[in-house]
Design goal:
heterodimer; A: alpha/beta; Rossmann fold; 3 domains; B: mainly alpha; ABC transporter involved in vitamin B12 uptake, BtuC; two-stranded antiparallel sheet; about 70% helix; globular
Chain lengths: ~525, ~290
């Protein structure tokens, strides 16, 4: 690719009047978008705003219906990813395009293998990859198998794959969605290094913190249109959020002081062993009162998933007890747990939260379908089900053509709202919410937060697990940090900071074990 | 009982050839994510085509070649159905098996008036063994090299594990899958040709007798690797060789003939351990946009 020194008013890539239609939707509505050489450009917007579509048009995965793309001021057609590669454009997809059983080197070189007479030259490939990776400042073992590597490392492999194809422009689709806070840090470093080397970076995100931390400029999209491009230094999170949603958004959660009441749940000495006998959940105790939010912060994969699953009847504890208002619910059946008034917003909405082939109504009653209000002994009360679902759709502002629509055609945010609506409509006394706002957009996050806080004000208890520290701190009353299956720190949400929690989350500090247990069980006098 | 003799060894190898070729064929097909249960029918078709052409031309070499071509032809139908038209791989395979059973029996009747056809000439033996056996061994070496050391082999294997990834780097998933399936047809066809021309010296209806399925079992037992497949096929070959060599008082021979099939079931149920098939096995590739 030609890399002339250009005056920076001349964009490297210019997309003009891009239209892209899918059956029933105009995903891109005459979008203008331009990128300067050497900048980090963020593309933000709610889910379904058309960001990924626009980038897939640029990368040649989608063919546009109307509009023109200019590269270096020359109009051209990018008919497939190969053509984009030839221009020096590479894309790191949200869902990694890696072949798990193959080695790192084979994955990086696939399609552009280094070979003599068709026979792979793996030594040469290894050298080139080591060189490339040290150029941008990290180490990688080219012979490791991808399936043995963490998500963060896999993403680096994707980046290397793009660089191996000599890309000068990198498009990253929601690169931080799957990363732990530490991995996000090192991704920032890598991207900064790439920028120093003169690469141009476009990244799609809906996390405004990332835009502020990383980008030079930002383009906001809403409902398929571009609503403007800003210099990051001249804008604010609030302004961007308002642009994304098209109205005023509260980024801060309004949390009133709630009256703490009776103890709702008391869990003691919970331990869960995996098949190999290792403690995935290690001697965890806690209690939650009415009107209280108990947050669990931790890097994904430290046992929080297993803890929640065992609390909600999907998995079983090896030892320990769970008491909910004096009835023993240790390793109880999921149905019993629901009947006891414990709701559950699962961490993975597609895997655990809903059946996408079912309608909105069916998903709305899922898990509660045996309850008397939805079911006589033999037949489902279809009319009642639908009525309740319709009411919830209205109340929770779930955007769906009808309650008979299949859940799969809802956007991620609306799917999440549907699950939240289902659980809250049952009036649970305790709600277990895991990553309740994962992968949903600003407007929906605001809504979910508001609803959760409303439940708290009504004296409901909430167990919140989230990898978003902002969310944990702003919603919780007490916060436990989980590390390798153990609670290693207990904090008062009003007296801690992201930084402090971050240190504990990596396990580099821990509080006294007895002290943590005492605080988690709320045996100290309640704060004034 | 002297079952561990040279003659048992030779019989084992002879028995193992069609099974191992079917296993390797299955491996090539599944390495691109296409399940090829049609191997059974392909062996039968290869056996039939090989026999007819050997007798018609007097050349067993042409017969063997024709068996390979017939195998490729069958595989092509499977590829068109399951790759291009995205039919369920199993259904397409079962259909081809039924087709092969019927059409070979029918043509045998039409052409010779009987359901069994003798093969009139065989390939000259080399050091007492059919040259096809040497070729089979060579094919295994070449396949190992091809799959794990060459560009095309890497692309084939990647296709069976993650089609979208392969497509995203500009490789045609469809081409890779056709290639995998056609190679599997050629190999199983060769196995069928060997079975009729070199091993049995006749064709008879339904003579594949489950070798295609046992081949697939060998592939699974061998954890989708060429050498594993060869080893597993040899085990099955041995069990088939045994059935002619041992007789146990009061136990009917029929029970001994069940041995290979019983071993197949036992192996598939228990001994496999955690073998993971290619992730895209049985999937269809649907391109977005």
């Amino acid at each position: 690719m030609a890399r002339d020194n250009q005056i920076d008013t001349d964009p490297l890539i210019r997309m003009e009047g891009i239209n892209k239609r899918f059956p029933g939707v105009l995903a891109n509505d005459s979008v203008d978008f331009s990128v300067q050489e050497g900048e980090i450009h963020a593309l933000v917007g709610e889910n379904g705003a058309g960001k990924t579509t626009l980038m897939k048009v640029l990368y040649g995965i989608y063919s546009k219906d109307e509009g023109q793309i200019y590269f270096d001021d020359k109009p051209l057609e990018i008919k497939d990813p190969k053509a984009a590669n030839e221009l020096g454009i590479g894309m790191v997809h949200q869902h990694f395009m890696l072949v798990p059983p193959l080695s790192v080197a084979d994955n990086i070189t696939l399609g552009r293998e280094i070979a003599k007479y068709g026979v792979l030259d793996r030594e040469e490939a290894k050298e080139r990859i080591l060189e490339l990776s040290s150029d941008i400042g990290f180490e990688i073992d080219p012979e490791a198998r991808v399936e043995d590597l963490s998500v963060g490392v896999r993403q680096r492999i994707e980046i290397l794959k793009v660089l191996f194809r000599e890309a000068e422009v990198l498009i990253l689709d929601e690169p931080t969605a799957v990363l732990t806070p530490q991995e996000v840090e090192s991704l920032y470093e890598i991207l900064n290094n790439l920028q120093e080397q003169g690469k141009t970076i476009i990244f799609i995100t809906h996390k405004l913190n990332e835009v502020m931390d990383l980008a030079d400029r930002v383009t906001v999209m809403r409902e398929g249109k571009d609503v403007g491009t800003k210099e990051v230094q001249e804008t604010s999170k609030n302004e961007l959020a308002n642009m994304m949603v098209g109205r005023e958004v509260l980024l801060r959660v309004e949390k009133e002081e709630a009256e703490k009441g009776e103890e709702l749940i008391r869990a003691e000495n919970l331990t869960l062993k995996n098949d190999e006998g290792a403690n995935i959940v290690d001697d965890i105790s806690f209690s939650i009162r009415e009107g209280e939010v108990f947050g669990i912060a931790g890097v994904q994969g430290n046992g929080q998933t297993e803890l929640i699953e065992a609390l909600t009847g999907i998995n079983e504890f090896s030892s320990g007890t769970v008491e909910v208002q004096n009835s023993d619910l240790t390793n109880a059946d999921g149905q019993v747990i629901r009947e006891e008034g414990i709701g559950h917003i699962p961490e993975d909405r597609l895997d655990r939260g809903m059946i996408t082939d079912f309608t909105v109504t069916e998903n709305f009653v899922l898990g509660y379908h045996t309850f008397e209000r939805y079911s006589s002994r033999i037949f489902m009360k279809l009319r009642d089900m639908d009525e309740h679902a319709k009411k919830a759709v209205e109340e929770f502002d779930i955007k769906t053509p009808s309650t008979k629509t299949l859940a799969e055609s809802l956007s991620g945010g609306n799917q999440q709202k549907l699950i939240v609506a289902r659980e809250l409509s049952q009036q649970p006394k305790l709600l277990i919410a895991a990553q309740p706002t994962r992968g949903i957009d600003v407007g929906a996050i605001e809504f979910v937060h508001e609803r959760l806080m409303k439940e708290r004000a009504r004296g409901k208890g909430l167990l919140l697990v989230s990898s978003e520290l902002d969310e944990i701190i702003s919603l919780s009353d007490r916060i436990a940090v989980i590390y390798e299956g153990e609670f290693i720190g207990m904090f008062d949400a009003n007296e801690t900071s992201k930084e402090e929690l971050g240190v504990y989350m990596t396990g580099s500090e821990r509080q006294d074990k007895e002290e943590v247990r005492r605080k988690a069980l709320d045996k100290v006098s309640p704060r004034e | 009982m002297d079952i561990f003799t040279i003659s048992t060894l030779l019989a084992t190898i002879r028995m193992a050839v069609p099974i191992s070729l079917a296993a390797l064929g299955g491996l090539f097909s599944e390495s691109t994510g296409v399940i090829n249960i049609a191997l059974e029918g392909i062996i039968l078709m290869g056996a039939f085509a090989g026999t007819i052409i050997t007798n018609a031309t007097g050349s067993p070499l042409l017969g063997i070649l024709m068996a390979v071509v017939a195998g490729i032809g069958m595989a092509l139908i499977h590829a068109i159905a399951s790759v291009t038209f995205k039919a369920n791989h199993i259904i397409s395979g079962v259909a081809l098996n039924l087709f092969a059973t019927g059409v070979t029996f029918f043509l045998a009747l039409v052409l010779t008036g009987g359901s069994q056809i003798s093969v009139e000439s065989t390939l000259p033996k080399f050091l007492g063994i059919s040259p096809v056996i040497y070729v089979t061994v060579a094919i295994f070496f070449l396949s190992g090299f091809f799959l794990y050391r060459t560009r095309l082999g890497l692309r084939l294997r990647a296709t069976g594990e993650h089609m979208a990834a392969v497509d995203s780097v500009g490789i045609s998933v469809t081409k890779m899958r056709y290639l995998g399936v056609l190679i599997s047809g050629a190999l199983a066809g060769l196995g069928g040709g060997f079975l009729a021309i070199e091993q049995a010296n006749f064709f008879t209806k339904g003579m594949s007798a489950g070798r295609g399925y046992i081949g697939l079992a060998s592939m699974i037992f061998g954890k989708w690797t060429p050498w594993g497949a060869a080893g597993a096929a040899s085990l099955f070959g041995f069990s088939q060789a045994l059935q002619f060599r041992i007789s146990i008082p009061f136990v009917p021979d029929e029970f001994l003939q069940m041995l290979p099939y019983l071993i197949t079931i036992a192996v598939l149920v228990g001994a496999v351990g955690r073998a993971t098939p290619p992730a895209e096995d049985g999937n269809h590739f649907i391109k977005e946009g």
